[in-house]
Description:
The protein contains six helices and no strands.
Amino acid sequence: MAEPQALTPSWKPGDRAPDMHSMLRVDHAGEYGATRIYAGQLAVLRGSSPAAHLVTHMAAQEERHLARFNQLLTERQVRPTLLQPLWHVGGFALGAMTALISEKAAMACTEAVETEIDRHYAEQLEELGDRDPELAADIRQFQAEELEHRDTAREHGALEAAGYPVLSFAIRSICKVAIAASKRI
Length: 185
């Protein structure tokens, strides 16, 4: 009697398909939070300052990112995070507080947020693989623009902000918590 052949599963232990609802929810929350951070910074920065011009440009790109995720949430019937009211207030407060410290601190905020978002988007692209080419293309484009924001912030004094290491660590930690919470809630 022949021995039965072992079935080779197409998956390996630990593999899982990406949770597309969670992915879209957290990306929407992140772009929403970014628009609120920039709104807070612009409420404080003088309209003619160099930093205000930079923030205005970055805010316009974030608004475009948010519009795309709004569209995707609607098309794919995904609810936004229930934490959005917190991100509304918290994002604005973070932006306003860093701008009140200094223009360089506002740039340090952008640098820290965009560093964390780059890491987050890279993880998502790896998780997506070739499962959703449309979403992957959006994420790649937005990631490139987020890196542009990070580099612009660095070019305009982010790393020279008073207390930069502590400020960056705190903001990046906040981002990590916000990402984890927005995926689930």
